[in-house]
Design a protein that fits this description.
This is tRNA (Adenine(22)-N(1))-methyltransferase TrmK. There is one protein chain. This protein has 230 residues and is α/β, with parallel strands linked by helices. It has 2 domains: 158 residues, Vaccinia Virus protein VP39 (Rossmann fold); 47 residues. It is built from 9 helices and 7 strands. It has a 7-stranded mixed beta sheet with strand order 3-2-1-4-5-7-6, sandwiched between helices. The longest helix is centred in the C-terminal third of the chain and has 23 residues. Bound molecules: S-adenosylmethionine. S-adenosylmethionine binds next to strand 2 and strand 4.
């Protein structure tokens, strides 16, 4: 059975899409998509040999070799033009790594109409990348599984404007303000406050003053939302 996290990613894949799952590990996501009749064709890309072999094994075990092509490749290099990929999923990595993968071969994205991205941390850099590259957020989800909190961002082509607060927190997530959202950002504030108190103890160089200001700014941004001040 697929994890709740990957099931949520799968729920955003349009029926009949041609999907590339980058960093697929065991290829659980593409296997699930084919088994559930959501897609007929998928690419599973993996840059590390061990996970690549797990993906090959899983696809064979499930008898899906005709539907899923597993490739050992770095990021979007797993995608070939003739694949006709229109949807890309990248899950279970940090936001900065996801962005670096998206930036590595921009031409691969030409045929792509939907990106489903699940950063473990720093979703903010994905929102910043999206604005710069003319992608807009279609949907956003925050969920908790095994005591970890995950965000999923669904992007389609288009322009969007986000405030600094919306870029950090997610516009829809901020409005929904689910229990998981409040939990995530309450923990984040506690962590920033710990950082602040350790900064207080250190010597006061200009560098530290700047860092302190930056952390306080973030605390204020998030507290405004948690305390319903926006
Ligand atoms: N996507 C699966 C999931 O969400 O459960 C697996 C997540 S796993 C934590 C991250 C995987 O991404 C690892 O198997 C790693 O080898 C792979 N990976 C990291 N950087 C990559 C890259 N540049 N190209 C392809 N795969 C990459």
């Amino acid at each position: 059975k697929l994890s709740k996290r990957l099931e949520a990613v799968a729920s955003f894949v349009p029926t009949g899409a041609v999907v590339a799952d980058i960093g697929s590990d065991h290829a659980y996501l593409p296997c699930y998509l084919v088994h559930n009749g959501i897609v007929k064709k998928a690419i599973a890309g993996e840059v590390v040999k061990g996970p690549y072999e797990s993906a090959l094994r899983q696809v064979k075990l499930e008898g899906l070799e005709d539907n899923i092509t597993v490739r050992l490749a770095d990021g979007l290099k797993a995608v070939e033009q003739r694949d006709g990929v229109d949807t890309i999923t990248i899950a279970g990595m940090g936001g900065p790594l996801i962005v670096s993968i998206l930036e590595q071969c921009p031409e691969v994205l030409h045929s792509v109409t939907r990106l489903i991205l699940q950063p473990n941390i720093h979703a903010k850099v994905i929102r910043e990348w999206a604005i710069r590259n003319h992608w807009a957020i279609l949907d956003e989800v925050i969920l908790k599984e095994d005591d970890k909190i995950y965000e999923i961002l669904v992007l389609q082509r288009g322009d969007m404007e986000l405030t600094e607060q919306e870029t950090l927190l997610g516009k829809q997530l901020m409005v929904n303000k689910s229990d998981v959202f409040v939990e995530k950002w309450t923990k984040e504030i506690a962590n920033w406050k710990r950082i602040l108190s350790s900064i207080e103890k250190a010597d006061h160089t200009t560098d530290i003053a700047k860092k302190r200001e930056d952390v306080m700014h973030h605390i204020n941004l998030v507290e405004e939302v948690l305390n319903d001040e926006v």
